[in-house]
Amino acid sequence: MKVLAAMSGGVDSAVAAARAAEAGHDVTGVHLALARNPQTYRTGARGCCTLEDSRDARRAADVIGIPFYVWDMADEFHEDVVDDFVAEYAAGRTPNPCLRCNEKIKFAAVLDRAMALGFDAVVTGHHARLGADGLLRRSVDLAKDQSYVLAVLREDQLRHAVFPLGDSTKEQVRAEAAVRGLAVADKPDSHDICFIADGDTRGFLDRQLGARPGPIVDAATGEVLGEHGGAHGFTVGQRRGLDLRRPAADGRPRYVLSITPVTNTVTVGPAEALDVGRVHGARPIWHGEPTPVECAVQLRAHGETFPATVRRTDDGLTAELHRPARGIAAGQAIVAYRADEAGDIVLGSATITATDRAVAAA
Fold it and tell me: pLDDT tens, 155-203?
């Protein structure tokens, strides 16, 4: 099979490309240049999309012995990921840029270009598995599982995807990289948002959207407890950074319950007010059986799962949680899983649009 290996410059994508070559596939490596101005992106090993990453990817391809190219996708990345990130925060939602990058860049723009060039599939270093049935499953390394950010992929995209690392732990991948002589064997994982050079998300959004002061309001009394510099600096469930001028009457900590961009209002309340019993999602991708279905749902990256009853609706998904979840933000994804003997299967996903309080759901 003729495959294109997306090589980020990290250890996972390098080992994935090496395994694909060792399996007898005709492999070509490609690194995605995503920064319009590389100097504004991270340098060093803390993030991804850096100049160092490009050089690391090239060296890994040389060791593996495969052709290597760099594709400039900065404009697509800026429009589909960076601009989307800013627009979502401006609308009072909390996006996941890695999820959007997988959806719009790695498995849309890249896959489309690969197919046009005659490749059969795209290989990536994601920690996830594809079963013989074509269904996406969790990685055996649950701590590194990335099925949540891949659950936006359609069936036709999954048919042209290869995830060679799903049966290995991260420790095994690093050990294999060392044996193969790949210099990235001990390279740290990336954790931060790659296009925010200093790691200051709020500062980045301030520069993009500007200061826009507004009230911080108590949900129960309607009393103005303080002022913020921009509603985009907050997310549901946040406690730090509220800087309330007046404490609540009961003296208890307050958390962000909701963000209303139209009135530029941040509403706060006690922790238990964050508990939700029903989650609504739009833009569904569904691979599973007819609904309603009893399953588990994950509501944030690397978050816990909750038993739920999931139903398809005319325009999305609704999950009735069997126990409350706390601090669920619109803009994240709801991903439904079903457990079987081969591991958790991704049934489908949707983008969270709204939640209902646990008491109301009960």
Answer: 999 999 999 999 999 999 999 999 999 999 999 887 668 888 778 898 9
Annotated binding-site residues for ATP read 6-13, 32, 125
298 is in which domain, residue-wise? 274-361
- Residue 309: give its domain's CATH number: 2.40.30.10
Residue among 48, 49, 98, 101 flagged as catalytic: 101
Residues 94 and 78 placed together within one structural domain of the fold: yes
Tell me what pLDDT residue 307 has. Answer: 97
Q: Confirm whether 101 is a catalytic residue.
A: yes
Instruction: Supply the pLDDT for residue 99.
Output: 92
Residue 198 CB contacts under 8 Å (≥ 6 apart), including other chains: none
Query: 49, 98, 194, 295: which one is catalytic?
Result: 194
Binding site, residues? 6-13, 32, 125
CATH classification at residue 226: 2.30.30
Percentage of the chain beyond pLDDT 90 is 75
The one-letter amino acid at 186: D
295 catalytic per annotation: no
Asked whether the beta carbons of 110 and 32 are under 8 A apart, the reply is yes
For residue 124, which amino acid is it? T
**What's the total number of domains in the chain?**
3
* Average pLDDT rounded to a whole number, residues 56-72: 97
Say what the pLDDT of residue 362 is. 39
Instruction: Provide the 3-class DSSP secondary structure of residue 307.
Output: strand
Contact yes or no for 20/14 (Cβ under 8 A) = no
In a domain, 206, yes or no: no
Query: Is residue 57 located within the same domain as residue 176?
Result: yes
Q: Which residue has the tokens 């958390």?
A: 255
